[in-house]
Specification:
Blueprint (H helix, E strand, L loop, with lengths): L35 H9 L2 H7 L1 E2 L7 H11 L3 E3 L8 H16 L7 E4 L18 H5 L4 H18 L4 E2 L24 H18 L2 E7 L20 H17 L4 E4 L18 H11 L5 E3 L6 H4 L4 H11 L4 E2 L4 H14 L4 H17 L9 H7 L3 H17 L1
Parallel strand pairs: 1-8, 2-3, 3-4, 4-5, 5-6, 6-7
Helix pairs in contact: 1-13, 2-12, 3-4, 4-14, 6-7, 6-15, 7-8, 11-12
């Protein structure tokens, strides 16, 4: 099943964020200033440790040992879970705590632990309380409340098992009915409605404490090619992009999305050199940072996807993504080779020290703002939160609304 859009791999003192509950943003996104503690933490890190913060790979197995070894060896900034890692709420909570213990050893930095829990067809946790796809949520008699409930319950259940970031919601405007990778993951084909419901979902997710990832920038909704298997080209003019694709991402920024995920797509109207957006400084630094004013973390979509590597090899793709403005690198094909390539690029000056420090500072700031420096969860409580009476009642309410709107 497509995800972030990620392939599922084979077996192999924090401040409290504001959490607005309405669909209106609490305030314009300010230009953030790192705290003295955050600056000091980045300053004391070695180059090898800083490079490690950029990586979010998969991990093997469902117990902490193998994943903990990777965390310590590469000083990882994060990991991503797939079903092979997830069996029961208790087991997942123990896995998360074990990985965090490894990350924090010897004064280390806690992990971002993420997954693709969009609900609908993209669901990773086999035991999570189930909700329908975004398209169905958007079609009920009460789309705002149903979207809010789905995000609230999902965020609470993820946090209970130590998953502190959800790669959701999908912010693509699905105007191509033949789109093979987005489809019902989107709230629909109306840019205003998608933007509004993205805002509702982001507010609800953030209120639970989970970090939010809006995806896939600059917009994956009008393609007939799956970026897992090819490199889509979207022939929107800049004016069409502004009208169709941009509104949900502007809403995501206004609602303080913690992370925005890139798309492995080519949009010639935005990038004349026809580079994939993930490797385009024009798109990531010029458009997302410069024009839209986004100050949060930028993460790539999975670097295992063909769309990421069809023009460049896996290691080169990772280096180019960082140069372009990406702060985190999701699921490199070979963690060791990609890590060494980025480290070498820093040492050679191809990736400047200031670009590296900027990326790491954003990551550390996000971890601090979202409470990730207090990472441990109650193993005993996890099973009581998942599928609680209140959560089941919310799921029944949403299901009834879907049936009524069908």
């Amino acid at each position: 099943m497509a995800a972030s859009a990620c392939h599922e791999p084979g077996a192999s003192s924090a401040t409290s964020p504001s959490s607005p509950s309405s669909s209106k943003p609490a305030s314009p996104t300010p230009t953030p200033t790192p705290t003295p503690t955050e600056v000091a933490l980045v300053k004391k890190m070695s180059t090898a440790e800083k490079v490690g913060q950029l990586f979010m790979p998969t991990i093997p197995g469902s117990t902490p040992s193998a994943g903990a070894a990777l965390v310590k060896r590469y000083h990882l900034g994060g990991v991503i879970y797939f079903p092979l890692n997830l069996h029961t709420p208790r087991q997942t909570a123990e896995l998360s705590n074990g990985l965090q213990k490894a990350a924090l050893k010897n004064g280390g930095v806690p992990l971002v632990i993420s997954t693709d829990e969009e609900q609908g067809p993209v669901s990773r946790l086999p035991y999570v309380t189930r909700f329908p796809s975004n398209k169905l949520l958007a079609s009920t008699k009460d789309p705002d409340e149903d979207t809010r409930l789905a995000a609230k319950v999902t965020g609470e259940e993820l946090m209970a098992v130590g998953i502190n970031q959800d790669n959701a919601p999908d912010a693509d405007v699905n105007i191509n009915p033949h789109n093979p990778v987005i489809g019902v993951r989107s709230f629909g084909a109306n840019p205003s409605k998608v933007a509004h419901l993205d805002g509702v979902a982001i507010d609800a997710y953030r209120a639970t404490g989970v970090a939010v990832v809006a995806k896939h920038f600059p917009g994956h909704g009008d393609t007939a090619t799956d970026s897992h298997t090819g490199l889509p080209i979207i022939n929107h003019t800049k004016a069409q992009w502004e009208r169709i694709d941009a509104p949900p991402f502007k809403a995501a920024i206004d609602h303080h999305a913690d992370v925005i995920m890139t798309a492995h797509i080519v949009v010639p109207g935005l990038e004349k050199s026809r580079l994939p957006a993930t490797m385009s400084k024009t798109v990531l630094t010029g458009l997302l940072r410069g024009k839209l004013g986004y100050q949060g973390v930028i993460i790539t979509d999975s670097l295992q996807m063909t769309g990421a590597t069809i023009k460049f090899g896996p290691e080169e793709a990772a280096v180019r993504a960082v140069v372009a403005g990406a702060d985190m690198l999701l699921m490199p094909r070979s963690l060791g080779r990609a890590y060494n390539a980025v480290l070498a690029a820093v040492k050679s000056g191809r990736i400047s020290r200031s670009r590296l420090d900027d990326a790491v500072t954003r990551i550390i700031r996000m971890k601090n703002e979202r409470g990730m420096f207090h990472p441990y969860v109650s193993v005993a409580k996890a099973g009581r939160v998942i599928g609680s009476k209140a959560h089941r009642a919310a799921a029944r309410k949403v299901a009834a609304d879907v049936r009524a709107g069908a």
